[in-house]
Amino acid sequence: MTKEHANWSPYDNNGGSCVAIAGANYCVIAADTRMSTGYSILTRDYSKICKLADKAVLASSGFQADVKALQKHLAAKHLIYQHQHNKQMSCPAMAQLLSNTLYYKRFFPYYAFNVLGGLDSEGKGCVFTYDAVGSYERVGYSSQGSGSTLIIPFLDNQLKSPSPLLLPAVDAVTPLSEAEAIDLVKTVFASATERDIYTGDRLEIVVLNADGTRYEYMELRKD
Amino acid sequence: MESNQAKPGLLCNPEASQRTLYPYVTGTSVVALKYKDGILMAADMGGSYGSTLRYKSVERMKPIGKHSLLGASGEISDFQELLRYLDELILYDNMWDDGNSLGPKEVHNYLTRVMYNRRNKFNPLWNSLVLGGVKKGQKYLGMVSMIGVNFEDNHVATGFGNHLARPILRDEWHENLTFEEGVKLLEKCMRVLLYRDRSAVNKLQISKITEEGVTISQPYSLKTFWGFSAFENPTLGAEGSW
């Protein structure tokens, strides 16, 4: 029998880019709001950012249905955590939970590319970056998703973080001020939007600091 | 199959598989939008068996409970199965007899879970679904795909509609469309689809949902004009090698 139909796939790539930058006393998490399939845009206003706890914010791109399932699962786990411990989960704890959750589905993975940003117990910015099956690392800044190949080298160039090979270990937080970091995020997204067809429409930025959480938005190219 | 050798595993043998590998009878685009008082939705009544136009009176929009309206493209039998699930859902919700009823948001979330669950079992319901509704003055319009991708928007369209109708909607849609303007806009979209989507037919229904409930129109046809110069000599610029 000749092949008449394309084989069905349980996965899709809905595109989008995520960025997080950690500073000495803040963390900036950002993602665009475009959702696509193939060459079509499904919607121009879909948030990829999920606030999981007071000091842990998750930005994810990849397959929207898996991302949504992952967010719901983490939110449910966090609710149980609050009932058991009477406090909010810390960002490093949420990072480990996310890793375990992703690895639990190692042989039918969540097609989700995550960046988790937040503040650690000392109020310092922290960023955790993942692959789809749960391996993760604490870094000073990171990008995931369709535009990451354009964004990462730009951030590397601008932020010049110390080598992780240095001994003793040097803190990976960026030297930028909060306002400078937000400006940088806006610039990298405007740049990625120029070349990546899956990034665009609108930028959603979440800023975490000692005062709490703040949301900012910026329009991006819609073509 | 001519050989009587042991068949390979179920997953890699489509012959022995019990899941939907491809659809049989399918419906084409559904287009829907928010307007001043609620949601308007349009779908034609064709049921295609591959490229054969097999059925011509398929109802692809149905009311769900008191506050929701569901439109479907894709496999018609899967849609009808889904309607049975929803009937049960609404019935069991009604049996609480607490004066409370599922709104469009809840129904849309339920559909999302059903579609995603079936894709997790590698046994999808082969549909793109559009759910619209109004409850307590809140308008709701969302979509769910075969593999569970879901979102809300002010206007949505499935399949070809996403390519041909949504650009028109992005141009002309605004929050305060009246009923007449909304219907006119939907008809414009359906006419473009009729001209350019080969599985679309000129027999459609438009349905409306407001706080007062659902009304689905009788089937009707659109006025067409086939004299456009672009429609004349369609093969002129496409010379074949033969």
Automatic annotation (TrEMBL), chain B:
Pfam families hit by this protein: Proteasome
Annotated compartments: Cytoplasm; Nucleus
CDD domains to which the protein is assigned, alphabetical: proteasome_beta_type_4
GO biological process: proteolysis involved in protein catabolic process
Main location (coarse class): cytoplasm
Statement: the UniProt record of this protein carries the keyword Cytoplasm: yes
SUPFAM superfamilies tied to this protein: N-terminal nucleophile aminohydrolases (Ntn hydrolases) (SSF56235)
Role description: Non-catalytic component of the proteasome.
Protein name, per record: Proteasome subunit beta
